[in-house]
Design goal:
The structure is a single chain. By secondary structure, this protein is of the alpha+beta class. It has 2 domains: 111 residues, no CATH class; 45 residues. It is built from 3 helices and 7 strands, in the order ββαβββββαα. Strands 1, 2, 3, 4, 5, 6 and 7 form a 7-stranded mixed sheet that branches. β5 and β6 form a beta hairpin. The radius of gyration is 26 Å and the shape is elongated. The chain starts with 7 loop residues before the first strand and ends in a 5-residue tail after the last helix. The N terminus is likely disordered.
Amino acid sequence: MAETNRQDLQLSADGTWEPYAVFTAEDEEIDELGEALRAKGWESLLDLGSDDNIGFEINLYQRRPDSGHPEYLLAVWGNQIGTPFLKVDNLPAAMQLLSQWAPAMQAASIAHVVSDLSAPYIDHHGLVETLAARAAWGVQERLPALKQDRDQRDREAAERRRAARTPKSP
């Protein structure tokens, strides 16, 4: 259940943050945030991270009000708590917000991979195990084509070596 009394913010034309209410007291109790946002016209545009694996998640939503130009809403979530929604009126401002969160997302992603690599156990749904399984499957799936390609390259290289050693007639 999401909070309806949090202090969401909107970036004003002069670059200051002002209060903004994504949800009002008149809104019914929110059981599923995605559905509640869709009911307000917001559609998911971008989801980065996962609070299950990385520790936090960034969600960017978009809607086109009657004015026709899109608006954007950004939220950062971690462990069932999130930042206030941040509303901006154009894509460059949304990209600026994302770029400010990018270093934290990158650091959390790298920390997750390092942690997974150094774990003393096998996690059957872990990142490293998933990549290893995909690589093994891909090698098995592509092995005949890879061997055929390697054989063809070897034949071509041998032909070039033979041609280079063959004396040229005057």
